[in-house]
Amino acid sequence: MKSIPFLPTLLLAAKQSPKPIPNTLLASARAAMSRNDTDAAFQFLSEAFTENANMPGLYSCFEDLFRLKIQLYDDPGDRMGLASLLSDLSRYEEAAKELREILALSNGVLDSRVDKALEKKAASTLFRTEAAICAWDTLEEDSEALAELVRNDLASKRIPAVHPYEALMWPCLSLEDSSRIASMYSMRATGTFYDIDEVLPRKIAQERLEVAAHLRTPSKKRIKIGYISPDFTGRHPLAFLLQDFFRQHDTALFDIHLYSPYESDSSPEVEKIKQAVHHWTVLPSSAEEMTSTILEDNIDIMIDLCGYTGTSVIAEVMAHRVAPVQIAYMGFPASSGAKYIDFLVCDEVIVPPNDLSIRRHYSENLIYMPHCYFVNSHRYVLDAIENMPKTTRSEHGLPDVGFVFCCHSRPEKIDPATFRSWLKVLKEIREEGHDEGILEKANAVIWFLRSGDEMEENMRRFAQTEFELSNESLVFADKAPRDQHLNRLQLADLFLDTPAYNAHTVGIDCLSVGVPMVSLLRDSRSISSTDDIATDKLASRVGGSLLKSAGLHELVAPSMAEYEFIMKRCVVDCAWYSTVKERLLQNRKKSPLFDTERWMKNLESALIAIESNKQKTNYDVFVIDEQL
Q1: Rounded-to-10 torsion of CA 624, 307, 377, 483
Q2: In percent, how much of the chain has pLDDT > 90?
Q3: Which backbone phi and psi does 536 adopt, to 5 degrees?
Q4: Angle at CA of residue 22, ends 20 and 26, nearest 5°
Q5: Which of 509, 410, 510, 524 is nearest to 169 (CA)?
Q6: Strand order in the sheet with 445-449
Q7: Predicted local confidence at residue 414, as pLDDT
Q8: How far apart are CA 587 and CA 575, in angstroms?
Q9: What is the three-class DSSP state of 258?
Q10: Quick check: pTM over 0.85?
């Protein structure tokens, strides 16, 4: 009897015809389970999923089927499937229990039912599952085990179970680890495996090509630029960030083609994007058909907006080399490690050009933007947000008088060492406030984005156990639609950036509504203990780039001690804090961080230079801003 694969594989396999109505399918599945006919039950549930993936009762039926399979056959593969399902349902502690069962089997007497691939998948999934609820009791041992598994796989030229995106988030994995994991995934996309040493570590580019918008020489023909992403949807931050990006292109110089594997969801953001371009193509389903469709358009430069963060088929398309020049941007904040990606868009903060300890882990030539590399459309949506009815602190459980620290990043970005620093400062401020009778300090809180009961319980328990902080010192907000999120974010006083993986879109959000942010950006040589979080990965340097581009250099902390000092100074030095906040508010209309048109002119200068220098292979492009 074969085990049911873990849920994503299981659900993708569901393609049946003809199809009875879903309610009948669920009843048939229940009947099959009552006879212990698990194969038939799986068939019925797969058909029901194909008909309506969101129908009531479907996931509980899948859960019952997994549990029945485990009871009958005790197959670790079914435990993996159950764990995946429970994670999708945000029942993380239950998922962790199943994953630990798998690992207990693999760590005990050799069990032929647990192969090495399943063990590594379980270890990786367990790490992600517990990070999602800030369950840190076994983090040290789990981190060591995960790092060992990954490095053993890399040394043996095997693809690790850790996804490239997750490798950017976990502090136990180094910049070198994450770059080499990405490179292995690029090989899987090409179907050709070679020695990683062929692309990493990278030698410094032989030439530095400087270009400027006001000096650019247009090519003799319009340059065909393609952008490809599965994230042109109102549900994804990318569409929100780029909704006013494409209309800034100079259509006299560029012919813009957008490619999506999915039909438009008709969201306002996507409709604005579609109206800004002449060519919107919904691609067929397979990598081969997608490649053929794009090749027919004779694109000069293709820009991949997702990398490894979206469906794997996009990487396969890029691996087919659909344009003479291929550029990675935005979606995957790291090196692709891929031979088929020629350039990566960055800036001098996130990838310091003269710091070989960082630059060597990027396989691509680099396009250095003159300001922050992270483009956005926030300037064009601020008026709508500012015209919304103002919300109040009391509506969100916040003190009417009291300093509000805020971290609305996902919980898996928070690490215990950083959380301790936050709580340490919070405790000091609250105690000083009580002693001095100053409510602004005594009522200080940290405001988090709530992912579920388990996450909230773990964080409250941590604060109480280690710092004796009461429940009212931590406030939790539920997820909200984007306009409501931006509106309520204005209630915060200081956003706390997460060092291991910075706030990207949320960082832009807070700065755009006038909330200062503190971010760690330490020297790559300054790590002094195992508790220090390295900030050499691109994803851990974005906050510093955002702040410097916004003119808030004093909020970039070179150490956690300085980070804590900035937190406290924002509360106790009212004049200094007011000056910083006022500068942010004044700079929003003129800062290069929110100037999408200016950003586009700089990018276009780089694209023209690259198109004009196709014969060159080893050079970095440095864009000089004409307005500097």
Answers
A1: -150
A2: 78
A3: -100, -15
A4: 105
A5: 410
A6: 474-477, 445-449, 404-407, 494-496, 517-520, 556-557
A7: 97
A8: 18
A9: strand
A10: yes
